[in-house]
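Re: weekly structure request thread

Next one in the queue (279 aa):
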Amino acid sequence: MKKYKPTTKSRRNMTGINFRNIVTTNSPEKSLTSGFKRGVGRNNRGRITTRHKGGGHKRLFRDVDFSYNKHNIPFTVKTVEYDPNRSGFIGLVVYKDGEKRYVLLHNSARVGDTYVASENAPLVPGNRLPLGNMIVGTFVYNVELKNNGGAKVARSGGDYAEVLAKEGGYVDLKMPSSEVRKIPANAWASVGEVSNNENRLLNLGKAGRNRWLGIRPTVRGTAQNPVDHPHGGGEGRQGRGRRRAISIYGKPTGKGQKSRRAKKYSNKFVVSRRKVGKR
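Done, posted below.
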């Protein structure tokens, strides 16, 4: 981690990531980048559907490959790059047939390393193979929820899932959230953990740095008026006057409350629910 001299109050505890020791280039591959318009929490009618989003620095989109559909063809890491759209580092890789793609790198990936996506690939970090071919205790990332569905799980900086058991065509996987879920054994995953595991130790230091990321301020419900929030109103400080904390829309929120739908389609795949509340 990079620390700063306390020249101001907000600088005192601010930390950053020392990209100079990790990132190898500042120029992304032009053929794999494009401009894009961020949703900033609005739907197709322009109405806010997710609060506290908007603004932030303009970003260039990197076309990261989460499908890994080129099997049995080795690829070599040419660069390690920063991606403003995610917390992990990405790398430009070149397949043996000459094709270039961006992929999400694991924590110990370096320029010149060679990996492969294959059913018979060695069980080393960076290689990709079906979950059913991995031994119990393996750490994985970029996990598919179904075969050829593309990586969906464990993609944030420092994240990984753990293979706990294999039975009946399914693999029990412990998710980063601590939930244990059944995943089809023919779904693919990459071995290792996502790069940039220092990301969770980051101290932004000041509110403005949050605004650069596109995160807008959150106002406490109890500080609002009754017309604006169920917790609002009252003379002076008031308790919320109800058993459970709820959002502006009346749904349970925060404080370790369960907000999962009772009849969610994936309930039958959940072996153990995630631990909620303070850890």
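Helices lie at 207-212. Residues 18-199 form a domain with the OB fold (Dihydrolipoamide Acetyltransferase, E2P) fold (CATH 2.40.50.140).
Next request, please.
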